[in-house]
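Re: beginner question about structure tokens

> Can someone show what the tokenized structure looks like for a real chain? I only ever see the sequence side.

Sure, here's an example I had lying around. Input first:
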Amino acid sequence: MKKAAAAILVFLLAANLALWAGASDLDKTTETTKLVVQGVVPKSPAEAAGIQQNDVFIEYNGIPAHTVNEVNELKKKVKTDSVDVTVLRDGKKIIFKLPAGQMGVYLKELLPDLKYKKDAVVIDGIPKLDWSTGKSNSFLAAVEVIANHLGIDKDYVYIYGVSGAAFRLHFHKDWCPSSPDPTCGYNSGEQALKVLGLKYHFVHIPEDDTTGRQELRKNIMENIDKGMPVIAIDLINVPEWGIITGYQTGGEELICRTYFDRREGYDIADKFPWVVCFIDSKSEIPTDIDNYKKSFAIAQENLTTPEYKAYASGLAGFDKWLERLKTDDFAAMDSTKFVNASHSNAWIYDRLVEDRDFAVQYLERIASEFPELTEKLNTLAKLYREESELLKPSKDVIMYQFNMKSRDDWSPEMRKEAVLRLKKAKAKEEEALKIWKQIVAL
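And the corresponding structure tokens:
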């Protein structure tokens, strides 16, 4: 979902940070906070050292740190190859020695749970949205949560596959981190809702439309009163999708679940959303087989359609991405443009890896449902696994702002290596397309 350039830049500075350090912004509150390890990345320095989920992070390199921003500022100042990280576990201090740089922990600043006001209307039982779940597609994660809330027993892998998001690659005509958003370009977000039998409508209200915002607030409250959560973007911190789960103070305060929640329970939205997706009702769900078949056609369509609106798609998306990496004059870019390019590239790259990993899970899960296609579907899964492995480890070729000390940290050599890997990845996609065409023809 694309907004103003400034909002997009904020998105790429923070949304990708959450992949490694679960971002949130508590500067506006005086409540006591604690920095908690929400998860540990497998095979990361943190896992090797012995850091565990629920450890409370208190010092980085001997200096107290109680917010994600403080940790990242301290990381930039490190002059040594290793650092001491101090946590509290069961009330005891434990010191771990880690390499400088990425730790591989999901950190979150947590506040005490909300004390609801007397007029609060809240839908209970909506689970967390969190980067540590490995579900970085925030819209589809929100769809999964709401579908389950409505008694639709379908999980994230299923939704990822049948919506076509697992097979998608979009690259905006310029460097833009909205490229992997499923509601941009080919709208696999809407497709996810359709295959689950959900009736829906989107509302986009400009920030200066006061009347429209008042009406939207009223509609949100009406849906909550009916027990229907609302999907919305840009509730806390940055423009990622979340779920409105309640309201209080006459609707002036929206209660929510987002990837940037600052409490174990629900949080209060900092901002009023500018795009909202209302679930109006649910109807009969298409059969799994019908949804699987539709996803095959979507995979072929996305690979062969050169462009959806301003987003190059599929093989053309690879070509546009490669062209920009090879021909853009990064040295001549000002700092803002350079950071935007670096972060957009990193987010699109990491999301491509994740998308193909979920494609593997999806295809392996459904292969036995099509005896006549089992071999072809397993071959596709093998190709996507090979593509993902070709692109890993991503840290060798991409750079996020929170780890960047200078422009040299995203070097020409890294971009050249990325080009080599992406060319090989595209070759795997071309092999996959041949098989998709055979499958769709059948």
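Each token stands for a local structural state, so reading them left to right follows the chain. The longest strand covers residues 82-89.
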